[in-house]
């Protein structure tokens, strides 16, 4: 009986608490916390998950939209953090880099 009471109490609190995304699954950016976006899962294409925005050196997609994006994202990476830009570094490759350190800046 002693072990059942904490279980019932936790179930009651979960069912009457405010909703939250516990698993990280999402449909829209607004369901994710700050510094995150709702991107397609790399392993399960039908699942969208809250992912962190690209930090310096992270892989990115040059055509990704800013956050919040009100549609459904079609790529598995989030846009770069606001102080970075998605710079193409080779065929089919792009990284989040400071726009001031990009080679095109000095041309």
TrEMBL record:
SUPFAM superfamilies: Colipase-like. GO terms for cellular component: extracellular region. GO terms for biological process: angiogenesis; endothelial cell proliferation; response to light stimulus; sleep. Pfam families: Prokineticin (PF06607). It is found in: Secreted. PROSITE patterns: PROKAR_LIPOPROTEIN. Residues 1-97 form the Prokineticin domain. Residues 1-19 form the signal peptide. InterPro entries: Prokineticin, Prokineticin_domain. It comes from the Eukaryota. Its main location: secreted. Keywords: Disulfide bond, Secreted, Signal. Belongs to the AVIT (prokineticin) family. This is Prokineticin 2.
């Amino acid at each position: 009986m002693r072990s059942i009471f904490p279980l019932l109490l936790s179930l009651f609190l979960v069912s009457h608490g405010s909703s939250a995304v516990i698993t990280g699954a999402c449909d829209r950016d607004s369901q994710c916390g700050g510094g995150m976006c709702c991107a397609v899962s790399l392993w399960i294409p039908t699942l969208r998950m809250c992912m962190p925005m690209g930090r310096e050196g992270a892989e990115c997609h040059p055509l990704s939209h800013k956050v919040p994006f009100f549609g459904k994202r079609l790529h598995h990476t989030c846009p770069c953090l606001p102080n970075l830009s998605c710079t193409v570094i080779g065929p089919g490759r792009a990284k989040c880099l400071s726009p001031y350190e990009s080679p095109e800046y000095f041309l």
